[in-house]
Each structure stands twice: as structure tokens, then as C-alpha cells.
Amino acid sequence: MVSVLAAGPVFLDVIQYGLEHAPRPGEEQWVGGGDIMAGGVANQAVACARLGLEVSLVTRVGADRAGRFVAGLLAEENISLEGTRREGIQSVTVSQVFNGDRAFTSYGTANIPQPPSDAPAPDFFLVSVGDLPDPALLHRWRDAGCTVIADAAWDPTGRWDAADLAPLASADIFVPNDAEALAYTRRASVHDAARALLELVPNVVVTRGARGVLVASRAVADLVELPAIAVEAIDTTGAGDSFTAGVVRGLAAGAPLAEAAILGQVAAAWTVQRLGGSASAPRVHDLLDWAGRSLTWAQPRPKEGAGVAGLPDPAGVITKWLTAPPARSR
């Protein structure tokens, strides 16, 4: 079984849907629905586990009642908490969805423990760039065959300091969205931004929402631009996490990065058609069933950039790589 280690803060997510307007002081507003689930890095972990990967976490889970609830939710998804610290209070986020966007209020801590220096190498390590651990540990893991995939987090300071990306030297793949890529590189186009990021990390996959995905690699001269999957999005919560999980599942089965990115797109597209984060992550049979029915590109070719010669059918990519067992060998 392919092993995935995901690092980051875990939250108990309380999600409310269908607000008519932003909350007002002194007002009680009844909404159309809601849910409670594990969030934060749990979105990524659950998405990976549902795609048939063996997942463990580097995080903190509260020792209080809310923490016990979160631990139970993760156990139901077969996610290992063996290396997780159980201490303090559980971090909680309330997410309110209205006008196609979300607002969050949170309490707790976003700090996470570091993996032990003698920890065995997983096949894949997933982490935000700001939480990348000791480079010596990552060097040992990568020598043992681990692929390190880093994503970006929104910078609340608005600085978007490129120096904050220096830890990417210890990663294999960077997965920012287009706003993050442009903000960090100060480039005018996402294509130029992707090329600039290749100076820091060997592979870059930029997610662009309804405009698809851009894949850049030092090993390939041209950028690969993929259009979006044809869906009607109702909630983007967890879409990036499902995307990364799909990429990992594809790479674990032996897919080249561009086709793994297509699997990521399909996993994310499944998620955005449903409400919630980890609860809306797809399972293998969900995506295979979709591939057998109505899975298509939103447009036949990208409108800008290098594009893809002979753009592959996303249904064919899903069928090929999800029926191949995730049995990556080192």
C-alpha cells in the first residue's frame, strides 16, 4: 500500500450553508443547512484515504471533547493518528457560505509538531510550504524515494514575500493557485509565474479554478495547459485538497504529472459540486462511475498558452489510472 503522510493543523469544521446575507450583530439567522466534519489538513487526508491510499497525519488533535470527536471522524476514514499529539483544546472553525463565497471564524492554534528526525520515509509527504520540516530530514526521505508535495497558504499580511518560498528547495512539486503564484512572483501572467517558480522547485502545478490547470516542469520545455472539467460549482471548500489527493493517486499508480493533474482536476470537480470539505471528497467508485457517464472538458482546447497536443479524454485518464492499483515501488 502506498503511504501518505500529511502535515498541518486539524480543525473541527462547523459549516453553515444558505445564508441570505453576512451575519449582523444581535441577529439570529436561520440557514438552509449545515454539517460538522474534520477540516484543515483532514480535508487532504480524507481525500487521499478515499482514493485508496494509506494515510497518517502530523498534527495536533485536542484532548478535549471536540478533539475526541475529531479523532473519531478520522478513525472512520481509516486515517492513522499514531504520530499525532493529543493535547490542549481542539481548534474549531465556523464556516458560513453565502453569495458563492465563505467567511470563517476560528479559534485554537495552527502550530503543528515536527516529524521525528528518525521517522521512516513515506511514499508521499504533503505539507504547506511554511510548515516544511528540517531539510536534512526531507533530503533523507527523498533519497529513500519520497515525493514531497507542498502547497501555499493565503498570506494574511499581504506581503507575499518570495523569501517565504525558500523552503521549496526541499520539495519536488509545488501546488499553488493562480492568485498565490502571481502574488509571490510579481509576474503579469500565470505562465510567467510558473516559469519563475521552476527556479525554486522542479515541478509546479498551478490550479486556476474555472480556467483549468497549468503544469510546468524543468524536465519538459513546454508548459502543459489543461482546461477545466465541465461542472457547476456550488462550494469550493476542499477543492484544492481533493486536487492534491488526485495528483498523488495518479502518481502512485505511475501516471505522468500532467495526467495525474487531470485526475486531480476530476477529484476537485467532484468536490465542488457538493457542500462541505472532507465530507464531499470522492471515492474511487464515484469517479469511475462519473467517467462512465458524463465526464468531459468544459472546452475542447485551452484558450491561451502552449496547450496540449492531442488533449486526452479525462474519462479515459480516470479509467486508466484508477483501475491501476496504487502500488508505487521505491
Instruction: Outline the biggest β-sheet.
Output: 9 strands, mixed
Query: Would you identify the CATH H-level superfamily of the domain at 44-56 and 113-323?
Result: Ribokinase
Number of helices: 9
Please write the string of helix (H) and strand (E) elements.
EEEHEEHEEEEEHEEHHEEEHHHH
| Number of β-strand runs | 15
Classify the fold: give the CATH topology of the domain at 44-56 and 113-323: UDP-N-acetylmuramoyl-L-alanine:D-glutamate ligase
The global form is globular
Radius of gyration: 19 Å
Kindly report the average pLDDT value: 92
Proportion in β-strands = 15-25%
Note poorly predicted spans.
303-308
Strand order of the largest sheet: 6-4-1-10-11-12-13-14-15
Please tell me about this protein's structure.
- This protein is of the alpha/beta class and 330 residues long.
- The chain has a domain at 44-56 and 113-323: Ribokinase (UDP-N-acetylmuramoyl-L-alanine:D-glutamate ligase, 3-Layer(aba) Sandwich).
- The protein is built from 9 helices and 15 strands.
- It has helices spanning 41-50, 65-76, 135-143, 178-185, 190-197, 239-252, 257-272, 284-291, 314-322, and strands spanning 3-7, 10-17, 33-40, 54-58, 60-61, 79-80, 85-86, 92-98, 101-107, 124-128, 147-151, 173-175, 203-207, 213-217, 220-226.
- A 9-stranded mixed sheet has the order 6-4-1-10-11-12-13-14-15, sandwiched between helices. Strands 3-2-8-9 form a 4-stranded mixed sheet. A two-stranded parallel sheet has the order 5-7.
- Strand 8 and strand 9 (101-107) form a beta hairpin.
- The longest helix is centred in the last third of the chain and has 16 residues, at 257-272.
- It is globular, with a radius of gyration of 19 Å.
- Mean pLDDT is 92; it is low at 303-308.
